[in-house]
Amino acid sequence: MSLRGIIINEIFTRKIQFMTLQSYLWGLRIGTVISFAAFCAVIFLTDPLDIGNIAFILFYLTFFLTISGLSVLILTWLWHKMARDMLTLGEIGMAVRQGILIGVFATVLVGMQQMKVLLWWDALIVLGIVFLVELYFLTR
What we know:
Elements: H1 3-14, H2 21-45, H3 48-51, H4 53-82, H5 92-114, H6 120-139
């Protein structure tokens, strides 16, 4: 048996965990800090009039990554405070999904504000759509 076969056999027989919850959270923290630094760099170092659409794409991408990362970290912390024994690496998926939905919600609102079409009922419609998506995933 080759070395690759032995390693794969060990993974499946012993169920070796590659990432613990703490290592996942540290990676998420570092990624969020990097995305925030990139967001600040886009804000302070780019001129949308000179670069054009690339600056807007970079702004929205880094904004989404920063808001999503912060939301996931905050939601993970809240889940940990509310139920200490329930938070495992397998259950972190709900916090990630909710964080991504919050990031999508905030990015859509900022985009609508940039296009000057954001009104309070539009924000409620977007919030309702995000809420329905979350309900779909909770009931599935």
